[in-house]
């Protein structure tokens, strides 16, 4: 799949990894997406949303066909994905988790998501991200 890796010097004092990435790369924050891991009765799922927005857990649950979800404990998210919080990528996770990409991504030719560590972003087409993760697309933001 066509993609571009973008590295930048991560500042651990920055309050938002996603906004830091947008600033460092000089792109609109709406094009930078964060990967959030949720838990539904012991089953982990992934929501990928713009860094400027909040995840609607009810919408994520509905998108994957479960009753409810809550944000997963950090240790559970890190264990399942193989990545450190703040650098969780939707790609190459240790376990393939059900993934839903926010529908707002479809407005852009390419989006940015974590490359698996703080200070590394992958730029790719939203449709390619969905294809690579066997994901789906739905409105996920409140």
Automatic annotation (TrEMBL):
SUPFAM superfamilies: YbaK/ProRS associated domain. InterPro entries: Prolyl-tRNA_editing_YbaK/EbsC, YbaK/aa-tRNA-synt-asso_dom_sf, YbaK/aa-tRNA-synth-assoc-dom. The keyword Protein biosynthesis applies. Keywords: Lyase, Protein biosynthesis. Residues 20-132 form the YbaK/aminoacyl-tRNA synthetase-associated domain. PANTHER family: CYS-TRNA(PRO)_CYS-TRNA(CYS) DEACYLASE YBAK (PTHR30411:SF0), CYTOPLASMIC PROTEIN (PTHR30411). Belongs to the prolyl-tRNA editing family. YbaK/EbsC subfamily. This is Cys-tRNA(Pro)/Cys-tRNA(Cys) deacylase. The lineage of its organism: Bacteria, Bacillati, Actinomycetota, Actinomycetes, Pseudonocardiales.
């Amino acid at each position: 799949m066509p993609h571009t890796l973008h590295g930048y010097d991560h500042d651990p004092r920055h309050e938002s990894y996603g906004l830091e990435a947008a600033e460092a790369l000089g792109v609109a924050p709406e094009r930078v997406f964060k990967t959030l891991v949720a838990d539904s009765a012991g089953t982990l799922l992934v929501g990928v949303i713009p860094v400027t927005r909040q995840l609607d857990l009810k919408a994520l649950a509905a998108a994957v066909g479960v009753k409810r979800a809550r944000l997963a404990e950090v240790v559970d998210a890190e264990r399942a994905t193989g990545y450190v919080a703040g650098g969780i990528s939707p790609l190459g996770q240790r376990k393939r988790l059900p993934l839903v990409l926010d529908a707002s991504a479809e407005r852009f030719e390419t989006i940015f998501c974590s490359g698996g560590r703080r200070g590394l972003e992958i730029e790719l087409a939203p449709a390619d991200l969905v294809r690579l993760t066997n994901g789906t697309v739905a409105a996920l933001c409140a």
